[in-house]
Amino acid sequence: MRPVRAVFLALTLAAAPAVAKPPQEMKRISLDVTRANVHDVLRMLADKGRLNLVVSEEVQGTVTLKLRDVAWTEALDVVLASRGLGMERRGNILRVASLKTLQAEAEALVRLKEAREQAAPLRTWMIPVNYARASELLPHVRGLLSPRGSVSVDLRTNTLIVTDVEAPRLP
């Protein structure tokens, strides 16, 4: 295995601007590396942003950078783009994987959501309307329904009758 030469000439923090931003957005760095392992560069950038880092096994290779006084987030975006990688951020955890993997996971989540929606039981709500005609609200309510949902109006009581899957509860 060929040794990787990496020279970190400067890694400095610039003075924080007067504009109120989250601390990790204000950090600016200068970086000069030659054939540095992409894992090492990602770890360094995550440290600057005070983020935890999870890197997929498929992330490999080296990167050469010469950046002066750039936001660490811009440097991260450049490194990811140069290797065909993407990121997913959950709280203070940054996950890095190939764009193909992240796209496949996103598509799988969409399919899972659709499958859950199709399998969910339907529920009916009777919503009395005051100070408006229920029939005038139909277009607005239809725009909020799932593909399985329906809405009708009882003109006698000015009530919306909505049948749809129940919205998932967030933790």
Automatic annotation (TrEMBL):
Signal peptide start and end residues: 1-20
Residue ranges constituting the Secretin/TonB short N-terminal domain according to the UniProt record: 51-99
Gene3D superfamilies assigned to the protein according to its UniProt record, in alphabetical order: 3.30.1370.120, 3.30.1370.130
Residue ranges of coiled coil: none
Keywords: Cell outer membrane, Membrane, Signal, Transport
A Pfam family hit: Secretin_N
Entries under SMART domains matching the protein: STN
Protein name: Type IV pilus assembly protein PilQ
Organism, as annotated: Archangium gephyra
